[in-house]
Amino acid sequence: MADTSTHRDPEWTHRLGFLVPSVNTVIERDLRLSLPATVSAHVARMSITRDTPEQLAALADTVPEAARMLSHAAVDSIVFACTSGSLYHGLGYDAEITERITAASGVPASTTSSAVVAALRSLDLARVVLVTPYEPWLDELVVAFLGAHGIEVTATAGPALPDPLDTASVPPEGIAAAVTDPGAADGIFISCTAFRGLEAARILRERFGLPVVSSNEATCWEGLRLAGRAPDTFPLKGYAELAR
After folding, report:
1. How many structural domains is the chain composed of?
2. What pLDDT score does 51 carry?
3. Burial of residue 125 (number of CB atoms within 10 Å: 0-12, 13-18, 19+)
């Protein structure tokens, strides 16, 4: 177990670690928006340039070394910050990745897909609209993963962009515009840590009055929760509450 009790700046109460896809240009900004001023974020990058089956399947192979290096920073928790990469092989794959992280680092760990399920369950959301930048085959994996956890996807929306650099270029207003009517859903989930879903979530909360969970908000919440810095219920106002 990493020693987090020494060599700590007294102005920082916690240090959080995140394993980030190398092509992701969104999450580090979202970490700054979501984390309290007394919490620092530290990232290690995992090689991936495109959402293809081959690259997503190989992403977890980089986990042990990346997690080991993050542990050098004496972080309080580590989250594998990729939604599709942490659910690619279906039910239980997120737990396998978590075990790899902890085995390599000795640090409490989780994944974005695990965090999303925990967030949706904490809000009692059983029927959600899924908003993603993914191609249909990847949407289907997310739908199946959520379904295996008892969460029904009532509709899917969003562009089909296999290049995460294109994903990052979609403005929050464009993401939010993909949902015109949530219908019978009791909430909305915006997937992908390379998508500006955190900002789009605020727009959709105000527009429809429904709970909204984005991948990056769930990821930040999970890192804070593992470190004992956040409650077990996902905040209804998302990152605005997390950053307090």
Report:
1. 2
2. 93
3. buried
